[in-house]
Amino acid sequence: MNNLTLMAVPHIPHVQPGDNLADLILHALAQSNLALADGDVLAIAQKIVSKAEGRLVRLAEVQPSDRAVEVAAATDKDPRVVELILQESEEISRMRPGVLIVRHRLGFTSANAGIDRSNVAQIGDDETVLLLPLDPDASAGKLREAIAAKLGVQVGVVITDSHGRPFRMGTVGVAIGVAGLPALWDRRGEPDLYGYQLQHTDIGVADEIAAAAGLLMGQAAEGMPVVLVRGLNYPIANGKATDLVRPKAMDLYR
Amino acid sequence: MNNLTLMAVPHIPHVQPGDNLADLILHALAQSNLALADGDVLAIAQKIVSKAEGRLVRLAEVQPSDRAVEVAAATDKDPRVVELILQESEEISRMRPGVLIVRHRLGFTSANAGIDRSNVAQIGDDETVLLLPLDPDASAGKLREAIAAKLGVQVGVVITDSHGRPFRMGTVGVAIGVAGLPALWDRRGEPDLYGYQLQHTDIGVADEIAAAAGLLMGQAAEGMPVVLVRGLNYPIANGKATDLVRPKAMDLYR
Fold first, then answer.
1. How would DSSP label each residue in B193-253?
2. Residue A110: phi, psi to the nearest 5?
3. What is the DSSP letter of A35?
4. pLDDT tens digits for B15-30?
């Protein structure tokens, strides 16, 4: 594996609830004369997956609990948004004015349970927010299967989000859904250049793919939500993004 | 920016202390008929930079302090290696048997201050370890300048390492030295697709480059320490990897 190519797929339309994402992506690829091949990976921004799955919530319809009102006051946030964050979360990890970091029900620790107002259209006059997909690993698997059924090719799928991080500034792309490739690549036990046995080299390969795709996706007006990654030489595997979730007992920074 | 190509540069020899890394990389590129162009980025594994800079230490020459002996006992590590880790660090972040996470004098928080025994040759019969470069941002800057002087092209340079992370399993490539491009890309204030002002979208672009390069570099026998990244459309900037260090006051997970 010496060359890796990432292509931002043009012609992805604004996604609407109920859209068939596989059809939409395959149509866009065809418009650009891009033929998928076995071993390609599609990195797909969470937002279009969530939109297709109808994970939009009108804030006007959200009734904040007492707890949400309390947390909203402590974090300077909209109590209705906080209510949704808490519903989507297992526990609060850290909070302070302007910051609400939670452990999402899927296990990921990130700001606001992945809920934000950016890149979400208003439905009528209502403000809406977008939740993460119910089960992004399953969403990735369905896309992979739909593509295999239509084209007969085996691709990997990585659903990506952007997370902030302890210790380091800036957000980076991370994998929140994976299908058809390893999420974590266990290189332990392989000898290195000088014959030592490598010990701690589980590589977060799906996160590295998501970060690479993040370079093309951007975050702003020119957002490109689908990136075709070609040239990874990965074993076909049933990796899941939840493989990337550090078990609580192994996390010294909870 | 729609396409991004990453090429692992073949023919990089085993690097020795005192080697001129710019010459060595340019020679390898020439052997593959790869001509550098303005705006290319070279991602370079820390290990070859450290080796060229002679950052090898013979363990037989290290005299562990009392504190190092104590920490070594608490972490089941070699007291001589712990001595070097402590010398390279500002403070211990977390420790437990098998784990020693420190804030490096450069500000990065990672396991073992970036010191490990893998991919380090033995000098004679002595075991040796490799420290991080003294000043990786400066190392990146020197490489960039040497290439500009020899070829007249302006490239970006990212010196990469692999870090584990809180919350998530697996290591990913991160930037520990940067020159000629932004390390952190401030997209705040740009309107999103629907006209909202984006708020928290500083992107850790140098880390995303390092992660992307990590997909090609591997960690084991087939390690490819230099990756040419082409197609990033970044502004020339004097970014530094230390821009990616989260100030202590802004880190809720210290």
1. TTSPBP-S-EE-HHHHHHHHHHHHH-SSTT---EEEEE---PPP----GGGGBPPGGG-TT
2. -160, 170
3. P
4. 999 999 999 999 999 9
Number of separate helices (H) and strands (E) present in chain A: 6, 12
Using the 3D structure, point to which of B88, B108, B130 is the last residue of a domain. B130
B246 touching A (Cβ < 8 Å): yes
CA distances from A189 to A17, A202, A228, A244, B153 (A): 46, 10, 31, 20, 41
- What is the spatial distance between Cα B141 and Cα A78, in angstroms, rounded to a whole number? 45
pLDDT band at B120, cuts 50/70/90? Answer: low
Verify that A16 and A86 share a domain, yes or no.
no
Judging contacts by C-beta atoms under 8 Å, the chain A residues touching residue B212 are 4, 6, 208, 211-212, 215
CA dihedral A203, A204, A205, A211 (to 10 degrees): -130
Q: Hey, which residues does A130 pair with through a beta bridge?
A: A56, A116
Which residues in chain A are contacts of B122 at CB distance < 8 A? 194
Q: Is A109 on the interface with B (CB under 8 A)?
A: yes
Name which of A3, A4, A160 to mutate to probe chain B: the one with the most chain B Cβ atoms within 10 A of its Cβ: A4
Verify that A71 and A154 share a domain, yes or no: no
Distance CA A205, CA B73 (A): 33
Q: How far, in Å, CA of B68 to CA of B77, rounded?
A: 10
What CATH number did the domain enclosing B114 receive? 3.90.1660.10
Nearest to B176 by CA among B144, B223, B135, B235: B135
Chain B: residue whose CA lies nearest to A122:
B194
**Which DSSP string do the residues of A84-151 spell out, in sequence order?**
HHHHTEEEEEEEETTEEEEEETTS-EEEGGG-BSTT---BTTB-EEEPPPS-HHHHHHHHHHHHHHHH
The model's pTM: 0.94
**ipTM score of complex:** 0.93
Question: Of A41, A54, A51, nearest to A12 (Cα)?
Answer: A51
Cα angle: B218, vertex B222, B224; to 5 degrees: 60
Q: Is B181 on the interface with A (CB under 8 A)?
A: no
* C-beta of residue B159 within 8 angstroms of C-beta of residue B136: yes
CA-to-CA separations, B144 to A246, A248, B157, in angstroms, rounded: 37, 42, 6
Contact indicator for A114, A46 with CB cutoff of 8 Å: yes
Per the structure, the complete domain to which residue A213 belongs is given by 5-55+132-250
Task: Return the minimum-mean-pLDDT range out of A54-58, B50-54, B113-117.
Answer: B113-117
Domain edge (last residue) among B130, B145, B178: B130
- Which residue of chain A is at minimal alpha-carbon distance from B103? A167
Q: Chain A within 8 Å of B202 (Cβ-Cβ)?
A: yes
How many contacts (CB atoms, under 8 Å) link A and B?
A: 252
User: B53, B46, B42, B45: which is closest to B16 by C-alpha?
Assistant: B53
Rounded-to-integer distance, Cα A254 and Cα A234, Å: 32
For residue A172, give the 3-state DSSP assignment: strand
